[in-house]
Fold this sequence. Notes:
Blueprint: H1 10-31, E1 36-37, H2 39-48, E2 59-63, H3 64-73, E3 82-85, E4 98-102, E5 106-108, E6 120-128, H4 133-154, H5 167-175, H6 178-189, E7 199-201, E8 211-212, H7 213-216, E9 220-225, E10 228-232, H8 236-244, E11 263-265
Parallel strand pairs: 2-6
Antiparallel strand pairs: 1-2, 3-4, 4-6, 5-11, 6-7, 7-8, 9-10
Helix pairs in contact: 4-5, 4-6
Amino acid sequence: xxxxxxxxxxxxxxLCMLKILxxxxxxxxxxxxxxxxxxxxxxxxxxxxxxxxxDDDMDIAMLRPDYERFAAVIQGLLPKPYEFVAxxxxxxxxxxxxxxxxxSTTLIERWSFNQLGGAYLDIWxxxxxxxxxxxxxIHFSAFKVLNxxxxxxxxxxxxxxxxxxxxxxxxVQFAFKNATLQRWMHxxxxxxxxxxxxxxxxxxxxxxxxxxxxxIGGRKDGYEFEGHFFYGPADYDTYLRKLYGEYMEIPPENxxxxxxxxxxxxxxxxxxxxxxxxxx
Length: 280
């Protein structure tokens, strides 16, 4: 992270996210709320015993019932400067998942995206999906459409100029309230009865992420990550193979996924600013 709008090193960013993870882990243990490391964070724990060296994101996941319980209580349990942000906390929130952020920092994913916050830990809900493939296709397709509408509702419509490319986001922003789209999204995410279906996934990852509930199991403790120990799925091998294939192989540089936010500053709070234009 050596760009002028990155006011910290990648390692400093990783350690900031680690502090958030430690706080969330402590609260979840005290409240008996199951969670597990997921995505690149789980891969980092298994392959590197810590952060993937080039990764600038951290993720945990919860089964939908656990996520709902977490979202209902976490705000009152977080010590300062940490905050929980999600569709349930703001009518203008532009994502379909929750985040615990460090409110003493500033992170902007994209200048063109209407989201101002701090360094964060992603909290992903895992939702039930149908056993029938054709029903899942409809489910995933509807999710992609709705997710795109939420994106356009919160994107700068003039990102690519004032021509034809601005018409669709302008129409979406005129026609829909963000809160309405988020209400539809939650209804879609929870459309399958969680207790009656065995297949679960992150809808954002689609078909490739579908697993059965036994893969998560009782959430195995003892996944080492940066000198600390966290919860992970009971069967990490099946889980990681679904997401990454031969996950122990180090990918070449051109295949490494890096988020690279447009702006990050770990020394100043995003609360000091009203919108992203202040940073340019």
